[in-house]
Give the backbone structure.
Amino acid sequence: MIAAVRRLLRYRLLISSLVGRELKARYRGSVLGFFWSFVNPLLLLLTYGLVFTYMLPVPRSATLEPYFLFLFCGILPWTWFSASLLESSTVLITGGNLIKKVLFPAEVLPVVTVVANLVHFLFGLPILLAFLAWKGRLGWSALLLPVPLLIQLVFTLGLALFVSALTVHFRDIQNILSHLLHLWFFATPVLYAYPESGPLHTLLRVNPMTHVIVAYQEALFYGSVVHWRGLALAGVAAVLAFAAGSFLFERLRDTLAEEV
Amino acid sequence: MTTPAVVAKDVTKVYRRFLHKNQFKTLKSALLTGSLLSDLSPDQTFTALDGVSFEVPRGTTVGVIGENGSGKSTLLKLMAGITPPTRGTLSVEGRISALIELGAGFHPEISGRENVAINGIMLGLSRREVEERFDEIVAFAELQDFIDAPVKTYSSGMYMRLGFAVAIHVDPDVLLIDEVLAVGDEAFTRKCLDKIGEFRRRGKTIVLVTHSLGLVEKMCDETLWLRHGRLVDQGDPRRVVDAYLTYVAGGEEVLLARDQPPPAAAEEPAEHGYREGRWGSRELEITSVRLLDDRGKVRHVYVPGESLTLSLTVRAAHDVRDFVFGVGLFTADGVHVYGTNTHIEEHVPKLARGEGEVRLVLRDLRLVEGTYLLDVAAHRRDGTPYDYLRGLHSFRVKSRVKDVGVYRPPHSWSFAGGVELEPPEPRAELDLRESEGAATPLPALLEERAAWRKDGRSVVLTNGCFDLLHPGHVALFEAARTQGDVLVVALNSDRSVRELKGPGRPVMPEAERAETLRALEAVDRVVIYDEPTPLAVINALRPDVLVKGADWALDQIVGRAEVEGAGGRVVRVDLVGGRSTSAIVERIQGP
């Protein structure tokens, strides 16, 4: 795993220029261009906000008000997570030319996907912070933001490596993954508050993303971080996921150029 | 400087034959070991390279040739490190740039400028190096006006040019090129070749995979020939390319021979108005069509200047008195090259009864390289067909010279005044004739010798180099022939001639000398021997008479004791004075 990290550091120039390319290329030709990085999470927020406020009101206590803001704190990082995984499931196949025809470190591709989506997340962050400040919710606890962010980065990288390499061999993953992520979304307290007890609490507790999202919500929305232990466990899970992902990727590396 | 740039030891690459089949059987091994291949049975795998070993010394240019599917590109991918060998080791020293697919990493949506930067980094340059070389790259690709446009707006030529420009400016130690020079117009190809030439001069190592054999002969120091994943031959480009061409011609021979089954009567309309097929009443039927070379062997690949004999077997269902045999020659795209028939050439038909043979000898086939289709027909003088075979037989002409058109008139170039050209090195056309040649192998000759002895026929033997035949020799052979029933000439091989007469001899190679000798009426058999003296042949053959020129003293004659010991005779024949090959060679070379 340390070797994997070292390799990634060696390719940082390549990764950063590919991320730059990815960002430039994504909105090239659209009218709003870069603004889509801001508009996208806002529209998503609007959709979920409308649905769960007016159509299917989520039973909620006063602590979740203003609900839009609460939703925003969870949706923004979740979007980074799910978009990264969805894109990395196809990234080796669409980038097949590179792997087959050029001596190219394949693991760079899923990493670029994750980092590019991280940049989108970071673009959305000032809007969230502005809303928080507007509602008078922005406190010092927001400075703890890098902690869940780092854990999520490591966790997402691990899963992205895993998913991307495996999809080359089992294309079915492409189809299953979006449904799996949907389920995962609802099994993570993004739309609702993390229950303190009960069977749902037990279920959600084994989900590392629960602790990550809750940490965001606590740092930004509630203004106090209390679930340290859960977050620490998520951190351990993230490192394990990264180790597993890079192990699998290394194992399958030699077959990638042939199977793509 | 002495360590080789590329070392391949027993490199084997096995691919899965069927992708995405039975995958779940091996999920566990895929996850745990990644060794999908080792679990597969041989019929599920495909061996692209099989135990290939070679070295490429630093600074040499190596061409890799072979048919499609012979493993060339796989070899290049292994060298580039894109995919690892299944077995064996392959090491490459220094920075590699692989021109396998140009512009493989380009993103269509962003500008040429940004793509150059990213592609350069992908190929291993630092950001600074990219900046330094940027102008040079753009200038080389001739894209100054378009460099800020998105790459998706580029023509394919522009795309390739930019890809080539970036890859070549990486300044690699080892350059791997896979058949990419065919891109771009004439001028750009020229430029690429110049750039590669510059690399050669700077002592870089180049591995070139190509089907352009001319390029291999021109640019490469060494050539590897792959066939079905195995290294068949390696060495001097000219020699290897010749061997390869001869092999390919053989393959085409098989293909053309197989494609000529007894055709069914069918009239299928084809494009370009040239319809293949067969029609007619069959009152006079063409039962077989054979193409023969000058030795009477069936052959379908020829070189210009050879003779081709068209042999038709015909059968008349009843007595036919009005008939014409005709032949037409077409190029593959239907251009009529030549046509004639017995009527045009005023042969008057008398009678066709039962079976017969019709032969047409095309002496000195002066056609350029290509595939030629044959029409053969038997019909009435008014054109009513008995049997018309259109385009059902074909042959191929192969040539070293890639001239164009259809017909190659006998020609030569000459230059005078201030025009000076280096003449090409003289090279013979490929020899497609089966290698048995005019000489008889010694074992076959010994069998014949046994048969002759049984029939009571006496054998006369003489020997020599005969690399420049003169009337003195002819007189010797004719005199020798009168001494017995069969005359065998033992001929020094090229190697032994060199040994006896020094370099520069023989004037003609052994195969041609043997052929010339066999053409003489007096000579019945020619046998080639490799030692300076024919003693081994004499001992094996035990001739009844050994004939030598009178310039040899009796006790100088090698093998005399052996012949006389076995009851034979040694005869010295008086030559027409003053003629010897060495004297002629001296006269040609002048004082």
